[in-house]
Amino acid sequence: MLKKVIVMMFCLLGISSPLQASGFLQSELAASAAGVGNAFVATADDVAAAIYNPSGKAWQDGWDLSMGYIVDYRDSSVRLPAGVAPNYGSEPNMFYFYGGWMPLDSSLGLTFAYTPMYHLQNDWGSVFGAAAGNTSLRVDDIAADAVYAVNSSLALSLGVDWYLSDITMVQGGVTFKDRDLTSFGGHASLLWKPAPGWSLGINARSGASINMSDGNQKMTIKLPDQIQAGLAYLITDRWRLEGDVQWIRWSSVRDMNVTSAGTVVVSNPLNMRDTIAAMAGLTWTLRENTQLRLGYAYEQGAQKGQGFNPLIADQDGHRISLGGGGEAFGLHLDAVYSYTFYPKKTVSGPFAGTYRDRRQMLALSMSRHF
What we know:
The protein is built from 4 helices and 19 strands. By secondary structure, it is mainly β. The strands form 2 sheets. A 14-stranded antiparallel barrel has the order 1-3-4-5-6-7-8-11-12-15-16-17-18-19. Strands 9-10-13-14 form a 4-stranded antiparallel sheet, with no helix packed on it. Strand 9 and strand 10 (217-223) form a beta hairpin. The longest helix has 12 residues, at 2-13. The chain is globular, with a radius of gyration of 21 Å. Mean pLDDT is 91; it is low at 1-21.
């Protein structure tokens, strides 16, 4: 049986070999989903469905609440002719919260979520001087969904995203700082179980424009459209395998310029491409409500080599994750550790050099069903 599971997992991973939910998207948004490499949109069988695929709540009667904490560590640098210089930007530690309600014998339910969906923390000022400077951007998402169970095998959901944004940028002798609480987007999802053991999930999220101002200075940040689709198979009562593909429209993010009276005072052109991320995850259920999880993802960086801007500084990456969950103290506890390796990337232009990156993440969550 184990041999069969391994073979099937490698078959799923094969679809990703030529291809990071990258750019400045925060990939890992819940401990249980991160444990399977974020290949979760077709499983969505716990409260993390509220952000990965709210339609999964249709098969979870009652109230569910969850809160968690993500600890990130990043080691990023660039090799120049004079030697190796570090990126002094530090990854933020982040809190998330999920909930959902599905009345017994009802076809209508709801979910809600608070997640740190986008963030940037890059400081290249010691390397490239004021031309690069340092940037701290965080965009949190408050999402709410209505869930409709069409029948025993199909559920749909429709929701809204409310983005809370905060940026501090010091670049080229200019300081820009602002918060925005008035940007919105939308999303829709479905979960379909066409045959015993099989499930198909899709979650599509629209982009949004965030308009920031600091006195006479203005900046517009474009958030990209994204679609994630997955297929899960329950091999036995103990083994579940899922593979997901995610597309993100980063090409719509053209720049992060600061303007004043219509004139660009800080220029940040971005040469971005649409990206594909492919993930696979394996779950082993030891006993009821106790799981071990293994995941892998290959994520494509959004920036092209030509026109590379260290403001974003993303690269293609391989991520492996190991996690698990179980019942304790009347709660369900989940934990995951992931390591992302980014092959070195050599770029030309004003920020020429060979960029190196490594990232480690630890996430913990506790959930309660009522």
